[in-house]
Structures are given as structure tokens and as C-alpha cells.
Records
---
Amino acid sequence: MSRLEEKLFQEYNQFFEKAERERRWNVYTDIPWTQVNREASLDLALCAETFCSVEMYLPDYVAGGINVVRKYFGQAWFQANWGYEESKHSLALMQYLLKSGKRTEEQMMDLQNRLFEKKWDLPFHTARQMTFYGCVQEMATCVIYLKHRERAAAENDVCLRTIYDYVARDEMAHTRFYQGVIKVLLEEDRLGTLADMAHVFANFEMPGVGLVPDYDSRILKMRDAGIDRSVFIQKIYMPILKYLGVGRHEMLAAQRTALEARADGRAAEAAATPIVVPAS
Amino acid sequence: MTDKKNLLEMFKTVATRVDKREFNHLTRESVITDLGIDSLSMMQIVGEMETELGVMIPDEDLVELVTVGDLCGKVEARLQAEA
């Protein structure tokens, strides 16, 4: 085992031990299912359905994610555990939608069928880039779940608030694992890792984009809970850099290269798009 | 001394360099998101202006930026504080 592999395994071992000792929860016995507020708003359910929909692409996330890190024991085993934990998130949210009376089994089945018409593809193709993507995505998801936890609490839905509590805690634990791995990778190759971080930041999209039906209108409902672009800098970008011990100015060179590449890509895309002249 | 007009011109120059497009009609009242500048590009613009001017805006001030004038105001305040 190389020094890098050994460090990655240590990160996983710490993560897994903590998960086993302190963080396990049971979908069937730990959620107060009798405290669903059936009078809660339809928007609350719509947002829960959106989260559930994004989590439903689990087979694609697991298949893509585990293969890209297959040769790193610690990271591959993490992905297996990650899949188990994320599967509970979609189950809990699905149960909530049914028990709240906001969705029927038939509606959920129909949604699943529509979801599986599309497939999630890896947004990045190296282990290091996917690790940082995981870090940003889990942090963003955690922030969003915490916002919606407040919203569920405001609507006196103890059940949904509890689900968001557990799910957000899992997402933060996943973020910490990824951050631990990135710290190791920064020690190994600081410039290369900074370049990958900048590339991921510049091209980051949440996994539901382009997949979940009516995603744009769903996002508008999410923003009602206070999730917008300014949150990205305050709650995601800066905290991640701070935790990793990377200064804003240290990112500038790598970020410049990544933003230039993104701008070039967009210009090329625009140039390749045919201009449609309306018939007179 | 970097005056208000120069700061606005500097913003235009740096934004053009970062986003690779022109920002001819930009004013201090322009809302950053309306200009199509996303949060990461904005961080780059801020960082490059800080480097050129030799100032550092505290991180907590950066989350409050809505208009171009907000950023120019923060830079002016730092320049005055360090003069």
C-alpha cells in the first residue's frame, strides 16, 4: 500500500468508525412518522419530492462514483457506504410523501418511471476531480437540507424536520470525508489539486440539473426557502477553502485558467449553435 | 489616488478579462447578477482587483455585494483605511 493509499484508508476508517458509533439511524424506527403534518403546504412536499427525485439516481451515482475511485481502497469503500446512506435518504423522503398524503403510490411509481428515462453521467472524469465534486455537492446539499429543515419546523412538520436533521447530518459527514481526502491530495500535489478544485468550482452543477422533470420550476420553489447564488459563496465556497487551508488569493491563478477555459467552451458552443431566422 | 471613475474602469477591465466579454454599459448601479457575472467570476474579479490595488477586503464583506458600486465602495474604504 502506497503512502497515499494508506492515508486515504485512514480517512475512511475514521469516517466509518464514527458513522458506526455515532451516526447510524433507522428509517423505520427513528423517524416520528405519526408526527407528519398533513396540513403542511404543497410547496413543502414539492421540495421533498425534488430531493427524493435527485436521490433516486442512486444507481448512476454509485456505479459512476465507485468505478472512478476503484483502485483506492479507502475511497471505493467509502462510496459503498455512501450508497447505503443515500439510499435511506430517498426511502425516508418517499415514505414522507406517501404518509403525508401529498402523493399516492401510483404517483410515486409514475415519477420513478419518468426519472429513469434519463441517466446521470459523471460530470468529471478523474478521481481527484470527482472527489472535489463530491465535496462541493455534499456541502451544497447539506446547506439546502438545513434551510428546508427550518421550513419544515416553521410548518410544524416534526416528521419532515427530523428527516432533514438526519439527512443533513449525513451530508455533512460525507463533506468532511471528502475534505479529509482533499487535504491529503493537497499535501501530495498542491498545484494540481488547486487546478482541479478551480475546474470543478467553475463547472459545478447540482446533479438534478437536466434530469429531474420540471427542474427549473422546482428550483424556484427551493429559492423561496432562501437558497440562491449568494449562498454559494457564503456557505459553500468560503467554508470549503477555509477548512482546506486554502486562501482566496491562492485560488486566483488556477481559477483564472479554469474560468478562461469555461468562457472559451461557452463561446465555441455559441458559435456552433445555428442561428434560426424566422420565416417572413 | 484611485478615484471612483478609475475603480469603475478597473472593474470593467478586470471583468472583461475574467469573463472574456465586453461590459460597455456598466455603471456603479449595475446589479452584478444582472450582468451575467456568476459568483465564482465575481470572486475572481474581486481577487484580481485586490491584487492590483494591494488591498484585501474582509471575506465577510464579500457576501454583501449586490451592485458594482457595492464592490467599488468596499475597495474605496480599504484604500482610505490603508492610506
---
Amino acid sequence: MTAFPFIVAFLIGAVIGLTELLSKYTWSAKAVLTSAPGWGYLSISGLSTLLAYSFAYSLDLLSPLALQGEYLRVVACSLMGTAVLRSSFANLKIEGGKEFSAGFQGILDVFRERAETSLDQRMQEDTIDLVSPIVENFSFFTSKEHFCALGIDLLQSVSPDKKESFYQAVAKLESSPVPDSTKMVLFSRMLIELTGEKLFRKIANQVEKDFGKANIESKNNEKFALERLVELKKAFED
Amino acid sequence: MKKDAVTDFIGFIDGFEARNLESIRKQASAEINDMQTRAQILKELSKTENDLKDFHEEMIQIEMALSSHVDNVVQRISKAGELLYKFMQVVDVKNLKTEGFNLQIRGFIKSFMAAAEICKDMTLVKEAVNLGEIYQEKFGES
């Protein structure tokens, strides 16, 4: 008996875990592979497959596949074992109607939820860190249309439904009671999902070139209104 | 990026807005309560005092705008501010003798400005500035 099939089984489990996370977080393999919870989930997923393979090995369930090559046996057994271990056949219902997964899947769910929360926060942080300095001098009120025109309007890969959903969200954001700078960050956070970082930066450069002055004026008007409010508030103090 | 977020932009903004409005509601609750109380007093004054009777309908509308169950907290404040501004534009304060009227209007605007500062919403900020300025113009003081 060599350790090699067990390593392969572990790797298969880790890859299954990775595809699970990537199915929810597209384009974020880097974030998954550079975060501790991401690695935690891949390891626990790898362990579950290793466990499945070990069971099959010790219970001699591999004999029907005896004529097949070692690689095929470990792959087939790991996948089938994983399917059994991670299926929901052992879901239990407790008082109050709440359902939970019994066995290994329950443990996996805990790790997966932790990994997802951490990835969510990490990607949100990354996006804000990326977007905030770029749009610092932009006014949402002045520049949103130019960003849209240069961004998603020309992107053929964005479906009409997605464009419609985006514009509805922008219209909602427009009437949202938040400062213009917050609107600009939220707007960019959505837009960058469709354009990607590189195109987004190019659009920002172009809008700054064409409408930089209008953006500064708009920001100054906002600043002036807030300063005037503080002044008036002081005058109204008893 | 999370796949769901890509297709659900509206959900993303809705979620943000709900949390934001809840936070404003909590932070500005003292100011909103103060405005509601003053709107009620103004409504009662306009019912009983002769010099304010012409404005009874306006005062009812201001009070109703603040307690609307349809609008969100910011829309309620904004509508009340708009109505008060319209009232301030037409009212001739020299003919108003009712004691306490000035005090209630002044208090209302003060709370409105505090709420606008909490929200930092530009529509509210501009309304608050307009209200402050028209008050100073009409009453010749702050």
C-alpha cells in the first residue's frame, strides 16, 4: 500500500471544494487561495474525500474495480465516496421543524459558511480599496451617465436583462438618502463587476479628462451646502 | 465576485438602502419625534388661533407627511420640509400674533437641520439650508 492514492483522493476533495467556492465566487480563485478560511475549507473538503476513500479501502469496496488501473479506482472511489458522504440523505428534522445535516456534511457546512463569509468580506474590502481612490474626485450626480455610456452600454457580453437590472439599481441608488460620495462608491462597486478593473480605470480616466471640471464644481456645491448647513445650525443653537 | 450579486444589482441596493434607512431612523429618532410634536402643536394652534386659521390645512398636511406609513423616514422628513417651506414663502409673519408660533417653527427647522446633517442626503441638506435661510429672512433673526 502506497500513500499516493490517498494523496490523490485528498487532492480530488480539495478540487471539489474549490469548484464549490468558485461556483459562487467567480474570478476569485486568488482570494480563495490566499485566505485562511479558503484553505481551511479546501483542506476539510480534501479530508472528507480522503475519509471516503479510506473507508472504501478498508472495507474492501474497491474489489469490483480490481481490474481497473489504480488511478481510475482512486478517482471513481473518491467521487462516489464524496457523493455519499456529502449527500443530504442524513438530514434530520428537529423540534420546531428546523432541518440540519447529520454527519460530515454538517461539519463541512460550518467551514463552508465561514469561508464564504470571509471571502465576501475580503472581496468587499478589495473592491472598496480599489474603487475609492479612483472615484475620489467624481460626483455620482455628474458622472454616472458618462460611466454607463462608456461602460456597460457598449459591452456586448452583458445581456439586456443584466443591463436592465443594473440601470434599475442605479435609478434606485439615485434616490437613496446617502451622500453623493457613497453613491459613487456603490455605483462603481456594481459597475466594476461588469467592466472589470482595467476597463473601469480607463473609463475613469476618460471621464476625468472630459468632465473633470464639472465633477469638481459638483463636489464643491455639495461641500458648500454642507458648510452652510453647519453655519445655519450654529445660528439656530440656543 | 459573488455570482448572485452580479445578477441581483437591485437586491444589493435594496439591502443597502434598508440598512441605511434603519440606521437613519434610529439616529434621527429624537429629531423626528421633536418635529412631530411641534407639527401637532402648530396644527392645534392653527385650529384655535384666529391669525393662523388660514393655515390650518397646511399644518395638517405637515403633520400627516411626518407620520405617513407609506413613505420612508427620509421621504417623510423631506415632504414635511417642502410643505413648511411653501408655507414660509406665503406667510406674512408680521400679521401673526400667536404666542409660541415663532418658537415652534424655529424648533421644527432646528430639528430638521439636525436630521439632514445625520442623513447627509443632499436633497435634505438643501431643503434644510433653504428653510434656515427663509426663516432668517422672514423673522429677521436666527
---
Amino acid sequence: MLEEQAPPAGEPLPGGIVAPRNWILYLDKISVSFDGFLALNNLNLYIERGELRCVIGPNGAGKTTMMDVITGKTRPDEGEAFFAGTIDLLAHDEPEIASWIGRKFQKPTVFVNHTVLENLELAGLRDKRVWPSLVKRTTPEERDRIDATLRTIGLTADATRPAGALSHGQKQWLEIGMLLQQNPQVLLVDEPVAGMTKQEVETTAELLTGLAGEHSVVVVEHDMEFVRSIARQVTVLHQGHVLAEGSMDAIQNDARVIEVYLGE
Amino acid sequence: MLTKRLLEHERGGYILLAVLAALAIVVPIANLVIPEGSPLHMSTFMVQLLGKYLCYALLAISLDLVWGYAGILSLGHGAFFALGGYAMGMYLMRQIGARGVYGNPELPDFMVFLNWDALPWYWYGFDNFWFAMLMVVLVPGLLAFVFGWLAFRSRVTGVYLSIITQALTYALMLAFFRNEMGFGGNNGLTDFKDMLGYNLQSDATRIVLFLCSVAALAFGYLACRYVVTSKLGRVVAAIRDAESRVRFTGFRAETYKLWVFTFSAVLAGIAGALYVPQVGIINPTEFQPLNSIELVVWVALGGRGTLYGAALGAALVNYAKSVLTAALPEVWLFVLGALFVLVTIALPKGCVGLVERVRRLRHA
């Protein structure tokens, strides 16, 4: 199978970037074009286990397309994508990848006609096949896990409200809660603090930093202040490829980055 | 436990089941026990008419399951109803035996008329009641499965899906109109004599068929409630609201849609099979696209996404149709069109939504 093609950890890779010894997500030379427009151009990205990574970049830099490739929505024209050593992401579709990699959308996408509890219950369902979903009832263990998630995202009091009635910020948290219920190893979080109040932003920052370690978290964000408050490692995307990677300080002093992004 | 789950907070569902129970008791008494001269007597014509409405109500519930809950607007559900009806019709045809106009013990009249000398292979087995009943379920179910497998796997959704369901029923109509298909051409199947040895014209047989329709509707309603109150039901409603989110949460949306669509088609087939012996005929006009669109109007008018609302809508619209086509036949299609416009603009949740709004106003 394709397993042998997965790169050995710790060895230098084409492109000059060294894959971390302990990588969980690996994108190599990914290119995607839409009608001649190169949305991703030779993109390399390596995420370590337990890492919290921020991905920034101006509009059209390819952030969303990158997430589409990782989660199986878009097939790249070229390149490789591996998960946890041996799993070729390009050979799987969305529902399969969802058990390893969870995704929060830019616009909060929750099931508005379902209650908060039902949203979490669906996301947390262990067996997602048709027949078990028809006959199986929620077990006490599942119920406990839902309660724990409700506490983590601070929505215990809203458990029986329809998700559509939540505030914008609460919807964002509910979606993060659904990711937790899904219990993937990697969380892809697209603009988690868009439209949030300052207080909500702080709570979200705590939530995400708390999740790193046990999970690998990739945050795509525009809000530089927020990125500064949580980031350990930052990747700057520009025109579909990685412009710079490093600590926030290093990034902020990178001349190329200043030119295309921060200096505006 | 189960009844609690199925009917909790479902006032409309209770009312539907209560009405069905009342019908099951009152109609046989009014028809068979109370003598004909009495004002309380119910004519056999009325029994047959009510039985027809019940079949329509079951058909409407089957559409509501896919449209109201799974968000699949099928404009070809009449096809599954008609196929169930044809399977039943074929059994009834074979029961006629030598009593046909041409007296051929093997071949139905229309085949003799076409100078056929043997029964086509796909008519084999239909002299057996249980085989025919199996086909009532299997034929619409299989068609829905194959159609759904192709459509949902290719991620055909929304208006495109509606259009191809419409094309499906239209194509079947054209096929069944052809004499060479061996289903009686434009005359369809009719002149039925008896079923399991009981005369279809007798009042007692008609009452039994009526009671079967009551039972089928009650069963259909409860089965659909079981589906929509399960986790599967919640997944399906989530697909309706945000299909790609469901995929990224790890569910195979297309497989869920496929099974719900297939189950719905089976219910529609059962409704068709009960309809045919009560009205005494099945012909290709049952496949016409207009029927499927009317069906959508019933569900929209009653209130989609409630199941009992669909049953209510089917009864209301068909009662109006019975009255109007008798009094002012040329007006009916205009009324139907106006109803659809009215419901879309003024009653997005149908009659059920209207009742709820009035109740809330009174409480406020």
C-alpha cells in the first residue's frame, strides 16, 4: 500500500523544512488549482502531536482550501497528505477522515433545529452507521461525556435550548464542543473568535490552549491579537504556499511577512 | 417506554390515532349494522371514499418523512404508490381466472386481445397472494434503492434531485402506457372480481379493506415516528439543515438518505396496494407528474415535518377535490394552484402551524 511512502520522521524533506520527529499531520508539496487559479502552490505543512499551531495569511492565501484538502473535501492536483504516520488522507473521504481530524467552520455551523444536547450527542456518537443509530439508546457513559463537554464549553444551562437560539459566540463554542465529542486527534479550527466580544475571545483562548497537548490544534485566524495570545508556532500562508514559519516574534520581524501582511 | 417516546408532546399524533380508532369502530357499525334507511347509515360509497383518503394519508406521511425530515423534495413519489398498486393489481388480475370476457383461465383479457399466447415471465408468481404482497414492498423499495444510490452518491440535491424524480415518474408513465409492456396499456388493470376468495363488491370485504387501511396508516405513522424520534431521525434532520457538517462529523449522509428514501418508497407502495382494490382500477395516469405534485401540496398544506399534518393535508385537499370536481369540475386545478401559492406565502408551516399560532396567541 501507500504506507511506505510516508516520510520517516526527523529527516530533512524537500523544500528545506525538517519534519518534526513526532508529526501527526503531514502535507507535502500540495497544489490545488481552480480554473487555472493556483489556490495552493507547493504547500508544505507539518503538525506535531499535541501542538497548537496558528495559521495566518491575507484573504485568498489558501487557508480554507488547505483545510478542504486535509478533511477530504478537495482533492489536490499534486502532493501528498498523511495522518499519524501511515494513513493516506487523499485515499479517504470526509466521514472517514472525520474520526481522525475534526473541523470547525469559519461560519459557525451547528444543527440549528436540534438542541445543544442533541448536537453534542450526534457528534459524539461512537457508531455512526445507519442501523445502530436507529435502534441504540444513549448510554450513561455517553451521557457523562456530554455533560463533561457541556461544562468545558460552558453551555450546561443551555443544554435543552435549540442551537439556533444561541448567541454567535455560544454557537462557536458549541461547534468546538462538537469537535470534542467527535474526539479526533487533530482539531482544525477556522476563525474561532470572529464576531466575539473581548471576554468571549479570552474564554476561547483558554479553551483552545487547554485542548492542545491532548489534541493537536490548528487555528486559522485573522485576529492578530488573539493569535499573539495563544500562538507558540505560527505559519504564514501567502499565495498558496508557506511564506514563513516560526515563533510569533520571529514572524513579526520577518521582512517578507511585514511586506505582505503585518505591515499593512 | 416506546409509546411514551413515540407520542410524547405529540398532541396531533394522539388526535390522529384517536380518529383512526374511532373510524375503525364507527364505520363498520354504520355500514354493516345500521339498516340502510336510517340517517345514521353509511353508504358503501362513503366507506370506499374514506378508505381512499386513508391510503392518500399514508402516501402523504411517506413523503413527509423524506421531505419534511430529510429535506429530499421528491416530485415522483406517486411512482412508488403506483408500482405498489400495479403489484396488487396483477394479483387481482390473476384471480379473475376464466371469468374474464374471453374466458381464458391463464391470460388476462388484455393479453388475449393482443393475441399473446403465453403469460410474460414477469407475471409469474402473481397468482400467489403472498408473492404479490412481497412485490408490493420489493418493487418500489428496489427502485427507490437503485435510484437513491445513484442520485445520493453523486450528491445530487435540491431542485436537481426534484427534477429527476419528476422525470422518473414521467418515464414510468410513458412506459406503462405502452401495450407491449404487458400491464394493460392505457386501460391499466381493472374488472377485479375477488381477493383471497372474497368478493370485492361485497360490503364485508370493503369494510375489511377499510380496516386494513386504518391499520396501515396507524402502523405507518408509528413507524415513521419511531424513525424520526431515533438518533437516525436526528441525523437525517441534521442532513436537511447542514449536510456537509454531517459529513465532517463522520456520518455517511448519502447512506442515511438512501435508507430513509427506500423506507418511504415502501410505505408509498403499501398505500398504493391498499388503494387499488378499493377503487377497483390501476392505470398509468397514477404515474402522471401532476399526482406527485398534488401530493406535495397535501403535505405542504397540512404542515410538513409533523407526519400527522401530512395525513391531515391529504384528507382536507382530497375532500375539497371530491366536492369541487363534483360541483365545478373545471375549477379544481385553479383551486389546487391557488392553494399551493397560498400555503407557500401565507402558511409556511401549513394548517398545523396555523393552529399552533392561534393557540399561542390565545395563551399570550
---
Amino acid sequence: MVRETRRERASDESGSDEHLTQAAQLRVVSGEFYPDWEAVYRDNVDRMYRLMYAKVGNRPDAEDLTAEVFLAALRPLRVSASVPEVRAYLLATARTVLAGYWRRTLGREVTTLTDEDVLEAVPAQAETPSPAAGLAAAILEQLPEPYRRILQLRFLDSCSVREAAAALGVSVTYAKVLQHRALRRAAQLLEVKP
Amino acid sequence: MSTRGARRFIADLLAGRRPRPFRAGEADLPELRAAITLRAAQPDGATPRAEFREELHQRLSAALATETDRPSHVAPARPSWLGANTTRRALVARAAGIATVAAAAGAAAEHALTSGKPAPSTAQETLTPNTGTWHTVSTSTELTEGAVQRFDLGTVTGFITRTDGAVAAVSGICTHLGCTLALNASARRLDCPCHTTSFALDGHLLRYQLAVPPRPLPTLQVRETDGVVQVYAPDTAV
């Protein structure tokens, strides 16, 4: 709901009456409601998990954080609201939960949920490439061949150092060095192009 | 150069383990972010396990069931277009304690839902039972200027204070999930033992660590007659 309102403001700077009318129309268009909390859960659990996985990069934490969001948000959500409102609320909860996770574990916010992270944008089906996959591919593309390959093997293909070294035809020690340098370069790319 | 903690974090990510906590420095962050971004693109982790989905479903079921097993006057799930106020008022009028808490939590959530993000709810309500009587909770001499006293009438529990000569009473139940507030005499505030929430002696929210700010504490009607301090509350619960 928040996002829609913001989008309207950007396109329409006119009087508030007109703004309200548009908001009301939007409400009707997107006026879909969940019948109960189970529907809220079924429709959003995969999306929430994928969102969290993109932010923490590992399954155990992504599962815990997903559970934390639903346990915190579903109780008040018994009062039904429209689908976009429910999602906005889940996302607001997720933002707090993720921030708390980083505070507890590393003391710094490594990743955050921003305005670009919307549940609607997360494909419910795993087969669809996620935004995270797109970003990773874009980074890999810009790296020199050996860097690109070591990161592909280690991070995306889940190879061990030994397997990656064998695939590249280098020693295990060198594969480790290569991985380290490649990751540093990827980090530089990521910093300049958020 | 990445630190030992960061290297271990990345090794854990690659092994599919839960990364171990460490005190990260600012310099660690770019590589950690890159590692997470790359790892997040790994297709195996992209979908939650079916067992996880079911397990969480059961946990939620259990958590929500405990809530609905409470007294029958707990707010029913109600479409937001019916408005928060009718429900809340009806409930406040019907019962004290848990009903007030549940309704207040519901109202706060509804506010959050309709505005799209948590917004503070500041309206303070007065708890007025449909039928009640004046219960003596203290005496005028005991309740000196600046004093704070706890009272428990069975149906309602709260705190009475005297500020600038005037007597006031607030509910002693946290508006978040109903934990009993404790008086922090030195800080002159009411602390919730459950989730680091504190209220001022007049019932206003002082601090909280929740996604949605809890509502202020309801006030109670209080009077001072013939040397005693009385609170208007429902009669003893049967």
C-alpha cells in the first residue's frame, strides 16, 4: 500500500482530493483479501524465505528469520487486511527482524531490506531466476576468467576447494588464493554498483 | 585483508552452515556482502524445505490457538473496513484486563496494517466497566505526594499515583501481550518483564523494542473521599 501511494505521488503532484480518489480506486483494484491466516502464510512463506535467503545466504538462518517474521506478525494479522497491506506489514516486520539478526551476530548491518525488496517482486516459484541470481550473474560477467570460474565453482556450484582446484587445474593452495582475490574484486564491483 | 572472523563466516556460508557470529569491522562488510550475494544465487537454497514449511505452520497454529483459547471476549478476526473503534469500545466496555489488552493490540496492528508500516498509536483510553463499584485501594495519608502504589482487585490490576496533589490510576498490564508490569521505583516508570517495554506512571509509552509500538496504558477512574482513595472497577470475578 505504501509503495502504491508513493508511486502515485511521483506521477501526480496535484491536489489531495484527487490523490485520495486514486488511492480509493487502487484499493478496489488491489482489493483482494486473505480469508484467514493460513492463506496469508501459504501465499507468503516461500517469498519471505527467498527474500531472507537473498539477504543472509544460508538456509538455517533464512529459515529461522522467516519463522521469526511470521511468529511476530501473524498474531496481529488476525485482523484481516488487503493483500498488499498484509505484505507491507510482513515486510516491515522482516526489516526489523533482519536488522536484529545482524546486530546480534556481527554487530553491523551487513545487508538490509530496502524499498526495492517487495514480496510481490519475489517469484513464488523457485524455477524463476531470483533478483539475487541476476545480480550475481552481472558481477561474475565482469570478472576475469579465472576469478569468474573459481567463484562460480565455489559459490554457485557448491564445489569443495579440492574439486574447484581440480576443475581449474591448479593446486588447492592456489585455488584458495584465487578465491580470496576473486571475492575481493567482486566486492569492489558490488560497492560501486549497488 | 579480510579478518579471521570474516574468512570463517564465508567458509560457513560455502559449507551451507549457519555462520558463526563475530565482531565484524567496517572493512569486512564489502566481502561479506559479495559472498552473500553470490551464495544467494545458488539454486539449492532458494526454496524452503517442505518440512520447514509444515513445522512452522504447526508452530503458528499452536501460537494462535493459545491466544484464541483465552476468554471468549477476545476480539474476533474482523475485516478492517468495519473499523477499529466499534470493536475496541465494545470490548473495553465489556471487560477489563485481557480483553482490553487484546483489543488494544488488535487496534495497534490494524493501524499498522492500514498505514502500511508501524505507526505509533497514542490515544489513551479510560477503562470504564459497564457495571462496577468504587473499590478502596489506599488511604489519603498513605498515598503521599509523589507516591506510587500497586493495587490488585482481581478484575483489574494497576498503579495509583499522586502528582501535584491529584490522584491518578493506570492499568498494570502491558498493552503488548498482557504481561504484568513491574514498578521501577528509581526510574519512576513501569517496566514490562517480557519485551523491554516501559510506560510512564501516567501510562504513556516510554520505550519499546517491537515492530509495532504498544498502545499507552488505559487509565482508570479514581476518586478520593473521606480519607480513602478509590478506583472504579468491575466487581470481583466469579
